[in-house]
Write a structure and sequence with these properties.
CATH class of chain B: Mainly Alpha
Strand content of chain B: under 5%
Oligomer: heterodimer
Order of helices and strands of chain A: EEEHEEEHHHEHEHEEHHEEEHEEEEEEE
Largest interface: A-B, 26 and 19 residues
Low-confidence stretches of chain A: none
Strand order of the largest sheet of chain A: 6-7-8-3-9-10
Mean pLDDT of chain A: 89
Helix content of chain B: over 70%
Number of strands of chain A: 20
Number of helices of chain B: 14
CATH superfamily of chain B: MetI-like
Chain lengths: 374, 308
């Protein structure tokens, strides 16, 4: 049981720009913290620094009260689950799980009890005599979890543990890891590039990009109040729609203009917009989540207009991809155009012209230059 | 050849409905026929012939039974030959494989890896005779007081010690000869073991380190067992290689000073002393000595194939 603290930590390779820049992060005791970001953002490097597999170029890393910059991995009392499982191929499942305890000189009976208990917890008791080669990917991943579990370590590190599993197994194992965290009450640090995993598992999420923490907060905070364009586009699936537009104060609240259409805002969106436009009309990037759109009447002025391009039916809902003249999606958007997530009842076809309205309280504004939330 | 019945079965099961045809029966024999012919003429026949003649007298004229074998295992000179071969088998094999493994691990961690590897591997490119000539100069001996042109004795003389008659002194000369072999073949072992080391995934090693293993424990408990199949291949290759050792001893001592080995003794009995019977018996002894190594090798190979 311990907390983990990064204080002004840098990671550099030679003369290149640092992979991690001034990382300050306090991972609380018992917390499930997820490090999420695109590949190359430095999340795995940060995790490997905690494990001691990657040297710290500058700054200090604490596990508990101890500065561990110069402590070898074997003396850090941490356990790690690797993306490719990293099981010892020449050992049986039992020996794989018992290895760390054997190295510590734990008595045989204790090893047997602890391995059996962990195996029982993960449902791998039947495989204990087998070699890793004779197991499926999901079973191997559970052995890797079990190997970490028998250690009863201070900190659990998981490096994209689900990325080699198929979709169904991934969801099941996700739940299993969340349950493990609840039963072991240990600090978990979990690295993933998958924002769904991050949202479903983390107590808190740290979104990383280009070696910098973009935002740190609970899943709901990240979803409701993304602090910049990157987080807004990264969290949520399908991604938030971005448009170039302007905001202006109005007699009551504020309005946002996208192309030729003007939306009347309400609630916190109106407050944010009028705040941003305090010195007159202002160019901004407007973000609206696909789930905040709905199909509206064409006569309604408070809508965006577009032509249906592709419709994806998901059973309980459908995703509408639209092209729209006059609406200019910004260069930040992954998909140009407008994506709306609506109920399954409306029937739309390719080429059909529709009007979509949005929840006037859930419109996000970002600075056109810096990308920061307004 | 052992797989031949299987090959026939395979050919027939491929078309189960058709009646058994001559063609199906003949095809597999056609494939293996040529290879079998060469094996028979150039391997099986000479082996059987050698075994047969090892039971005859020096000029192959009269049958003497196992007399030649009795002589090998009773004559002090020939017993010494067998002892030397056993020494070579153990020490030269252990020397090449262990040094090869150590250098493979070490070069893996330096920046000049390929240069270091090339330097260690180069002696492989020299012939046994060439290498022996080089080492004749290393070991060259002159009486005390005379100028030492041998490198080792020159160094010793600088410190006021020696000189040592490296290749004449019977207590050390066998080891001095093995050093030449080890110098030549360590590079070979290193290259193969180094490739095996690189095939060990780095995350497994990292997992072991996180699990609490020191570097020494990682080496002995993770790396060594994981590359053990390769170590076995290198060891058997070296064993067979050493069993046939001839050139180094022929050039350095000519088998004198208690350094003779089976392959050289065979050559001498046959060509110098015209003792055909003894020579053939020595060849058979060498053959029998190789058999267990080959059996182990084949068994392991089959086991690996079965796993695959």
């Amino acid at each position: 049981m311990a907390d983990v603290r990064f204080e002004h930590v840098y990671k550099r390779y030679g003369e290149n720009p640092p992979v991690i820049t001034d990382l300050n992060l306090h991972i609380e005791d018992h917390e499930f913290l997820v490090l999420v970001g695109p590949s190359g953002c430095g999340k795995s490097t940060a995790l490997r620094m905690i494990a001691g597999l990657e040297e710290i170029s500058d700054g200090t890393l604490y596990i508990g009260d101890r500065a561990v910059n110069d402590v070898a991995p074997k003396d850090r009392d941490i356990a790690m689950v690797f993306q490719n499982y990293a099981l010892y191929p020449h050992m049986s499942v039992f020996d794989n799980m018992a290895f760390s305890l054997k190295l510590r000189g734990t008595p045989k009976e204790v090893i047997a009890t602890r391995v059996n208990r962990a195996a029982d917890m993960l449902g791998i008791t039947d495989y204990l005599p087998r070699k890793p080669k004779a197991l499926s990917g999901g079973q191997r991943q559970r052995v890797a979890l079990g190997r970490a579990l028998v250690r009863e370590p201070k900190v659990f590190l998981l490096d994209e543990p689900l990325s080699n599993l198929d979709a169904k197994l991934r969801v099941a194992t996700r739940t299993e890891i969340a349950r493990l965290h609840q039963t072991t009450k240990t600090t978990f640090v979990y690295v993933t590039h998958d924002q769904v995993e991050a949202m479903t598992m983390g107590d808190r999420i740290a979104v990383l990009n280009a070696g910098l923490i973009q935002q740190l907060g609970s899943p709901q905070e990240l979803y409701d109040h993304p602090s910049n364009l990157f987080v807004a586009g990264f969290i949520g699936s399908p991604a938030m729609d971005f448009f170039d537009g302007t905001v202006k104060r109005a007699s009551e609240g504020a309005t946002a203009t996208i192309g030729s259409r003007t939306l009347t805002l309400a609630g916190q969106s109106a407050a944010a917009a009028s705040n941003a436009a305090s010195s007159g009309e202002r160019k901004v990037i407007i973000g609206i989540r696909p789930e905040d759109f709905h199909i509206a009447s064409e006569n309604d002025p408070n809508t965006l207009l577009g032509t249906v391009d592709v419709v994806e039916h998901l059973g309980n809902e459908q995703l509408i991809y639209m092209q729209s003249e006059g609406i200019h999606a910004t260069e930040h958007a992954e998909v140009k155009g407008l994506t709306a997530r609506i109920g399954p009842d409306v029937i739309l076809r390719h080429g059909e012209k529709v009007a979509v309205g949005c929840d006037p309280t859930r419109v996000h504004f970002f600075d056109a230059e810096s990308g920061k939330r307004l | 050849m052992a797989s031949l019945p299987g090959a026939v079965a395979h050919a027939t099961t491929r078309s189960p409905k058709k009646p058994l045809r001559w063609r199906d029966l003949l095809t597999p024999w056609l494939w293996v026929g040529l290879a079998m012919f060469f094996v028979l003429v150039f391997l099986i026949y000479p082996v059987l012939n050698t075994i047969w003649y090892s039971l005859f007298s020096f000029d192959s004229s009269s049958f003497v039974g196992l007399k030649n074998y009795f002589q090998i295992f009773t004559s002090p000179q020939l017993l010494l030959v067998l002892r030397n071969n056993v020494l070579w088998l153990i020490l030269a094999t252990a020397g090449t494989v262990l040094l090869g493994l150590i250098t493979a691990v070490l070069v893996d961690r330096v920046k000049i890896e390929s240069a270091a590897k090339a330097a260690i591997f180069i002696p492989m490119a020299i012939s046994f005779v060439g290498a022996s000539v080089i080492w004749l100069f290393m070991y060259a001996y002159a009486p005390k007081g005379a100028p030492q042109i041998g490198l080792l004795n020159a160094i010793l003389a600088r410190f006021g010690a020696g000189p040592v008659a490296w290749i004449q002194q019977t207590s050390i000369n066998n080891f001095a000869l093995m050093v030449i072999y080890i110098w030549m073949w360590t590079g070979f072992c290193m290259v193969i073991l180094s490739a095996a080391l690189k095939s060990v995934p780095s995350d497994v090693l990292e997992a072991a380190r996180v699990d609490g293993a020191s570097e020494v424990q990682v080496f002995f408990r993770i790396i060594t067992p994981m590359i053990s199949p390769t170590i076995a291949v290198v060891v058997t290759t070296m064993l067979i290689n050493v069993l046939k050792i001839f050139d180094i001893i022929y050039v350095m001592t000519g088998g004198n000073f208690n350094t003779n080995v089976v392959a050289l003794a065979y050559y001498q009995e046959y060509f110098n002393f015209s003792e055909n019977g003894i020579a053939d018996a020595l060849a058979v002894v060498l053959l029998i000595a190789v058999v267990p190594i080959m059996v182990v090798n084949l068994k392991r190979f089959r086991a690996q194939e079965a796993v695959r």
